[in-house]
UniProtKB/TrEMBL annotation:
This is Probable dual-specificity RNA methyltransferase RlmN. Its EC number is 2.1.1.192. The active site is at 116 (proton acceptor), 371 (s-methylcysteine intermediate). It comes from Nocardioides alpinus. It is an enzyme of class 2 (transferase). Signal peptide: none annotated. Its main location: cytoplasm. [4Fe-4S] cluster binds at residues 136, 140, 143. Keywords: 4Fe-4S, Cytoplasm, Disulfide bond, Iron, Iron-sulfur, Metal-binding, Methyltransferase, rRNA processing, S-adenosyl-L-methionine, Transferase, tRNA processing. Coiled coil: none annotated. Binds 1 [4Fe-4S] cluster. The cluster is coordinated with 3 cysteines and an exchangeable S-adenosyl-L-methionine. Gene3D superfamilies: 1.10.150.530, Aldolase class I (3.20.20.70). Belongs to the radical SAM superfamily. RlmN family. The gene is rlmN. Transmembrane segments: none annotated.
Length: 378
């Protein structure tokens, strides 16, 4: 690297497509809209109106025990549940931090693939960080998930189930602070969300669909992260769902970003930032720029100035917010978090250029549940 004594970074090849021939996850009501659920039951010779009852149990009442679904006829209950509420994933382990208010769950999917999700409760909100792929094909060298490679895409229902499981835990008072509800979802777990675009958008629609069709969340409480798949950012811009877009930039110049975020060799910093700016312009939603601070790699003062200039080149109308992330340690990593003094100077220089900047709270790092640490090891 031009201004670092460290060895050049070796990255894995980018993988956009999961291996062929994989068996698909069982179809679940969360994979379908209301009409699709009704049609499926009718195709199976079951009463279509039962679909709404099943949706109410799953999304409205957060029920996971068929015995509690007493409005379904006992003679048909098992068949109805098997048709639209199959088991999707099994919790293998839950680790807690922050006095129980941060909970990381390791899930085994139907085919043995492993993923992780994290529930974080704050005084004013509760956020679920969901995975969208088992593994990740983007090969960012400082991220544990990226170094593991891609196993497969997750289905819409597998993504939604992570949120519903968190909502159940909150509703049942299993998280310190008493019963509550999930208010925010961030697609910042395992995987590159926009590389599994169809399933991720399906999940977003289930999250925002009014109950009982979905969870009835506000789109403004949902953040979709990406390392910069420009065509998919452009597609998301046209969806008409005002989620927050988070762009994992990590470097303001192509030379460094090509090494830290290999997708940059396909879509440059300029192309990527312009797509994000256009998203903000069309949706009127401020974009979050994610920037993992790595000591001696991307935390120099001149890079703070360059980042400010790059973002300000699209105008100073408040379209963007920079979220600095102290690098979280991963096994065998050569990189460490920035020196606090360098971090403060980085913030100062961005703010001097009028860029709103915050340093992210690194919740869950002691249970490997923070950004870049999810590796799903059984």
């Amino acid at each position: 690297m031009s201004d670092s004594t460290q060895q050049p970074i070796k990255t894995l090849p980018l993988v956009f497509d999961e291996p062929r021939g994989r068996k698909k996850p069982p179809r679940h009501l969360a994979d379908l809209d209301e009409a699709g659920r009704k049609a499926l039951l009718e195709e199976m010779g079951l009463p279509g109106f039962r679909a709404k009852q099943l949706s109410t149990h799953y999304f409205g009442r957060l029920v996971d025990d068929p015995a509690e679904m007493t409005d379904l006829p006992a003679t048909q209950r098992d068949e109805l549940v098997a048709a639209l509420l199959p088991d999707l994933m099994t919790p293998l382990r839950t680790l807690e931090a922050d006095k129980g208010t941060t909970r990381k769950t390791l899930w085994k999917l139907f085919d043995g693939a492993l993923v992780e999700s994290v529930l974080m409760r704050y005084p004013d909100r509760a956020t679920v960080c969901v995975s969208s792929q088992a593994g990740c094909g983007m090969a960012c060298p400082f991220c544990a998930t990226g170094q593991g490679g891609l196993q497969r895409n997750m289905s819409t229902a597998e993504i939604v189930e992570q949120v519903v499981a968190g909502a159940r835990s909150m509703a049942r008072g299993e998280v310190p602070g008493g019963p509550g509800r999930v208010s925010n979802v961030v697609f910042m777990g395992m995987g590159e969300p926009l590389a599994n675009y169809k399933a991720v958008i399906g999940a977003v629609r289930r999250l925002v669909d009014p109950s009982p069709a979905g969870l009835g969340m506000s789109a403004r409480g949902i953040t979709v992260s990406t390392v910069g798949l420009v065509p998919r950012i452009n597609q998301l811009t046209e969806e008409g769902i005002p989620v927050t877009l988070a762009l994992s930039l990590h470097a303001p110049d192509d030379e460094l970003r090509n090494e830290l975020v290999p997708i940059n060799t396909r879509y440059s910093v300029a192309e990527t930032v312009e797509a994000a700016w256009n998203y903000a312009r069309v949706t009127k939603r401020r974009v979050s720029i994610e920037y993992a601070m790595m000591r001696g790699i991307n935390d120099q003062a001149h890079r703070a100035d360059l980042l400010g200039d790059v973002l300000n080149s699209y105008g100073d109308w408040g379209w963007v917010h920079v979220n600095l992330i102290p690098l979280n340690p991963t096994p065998g990593s050569k990189w460490t978090a920035s020196d606090p003094a360098d971090e403060r100077e980085f913030v100062r220089r961005l703010e001097a250029k009028g860029i709103p900047t915050t340093v992210r709270d690194t919740r869950g790092s002691d249970i490997d549940g923070a950004c870049g640490q999810l590796a799903a090891v059984e």
